[in-house]
Amino acid sequence: MRVSLTRQGARLADEFYTETCRRVEELASGLAPAERDTLAALLGRVVTDNKVPTVFLEPDSTR
Fold this sequence. Notes:
This protein is mainly α. The chain has helices spanning 7-27, 33-49. The two termini are 21 Å apart.
């Protein structure tokens, strides 16, 4: 069985992803660039170490 989003569902998913990324970036806006790099590296490790499902990866990164 194959399941896919409707056009409206895909649009809503894209809007959600874009808004979530904007908010996450805003949360770290008070950090220095080096601190943001460190945070990104540590969070990346958490994701990798915990085998996070691909649904949480950036679009097109699973290809």
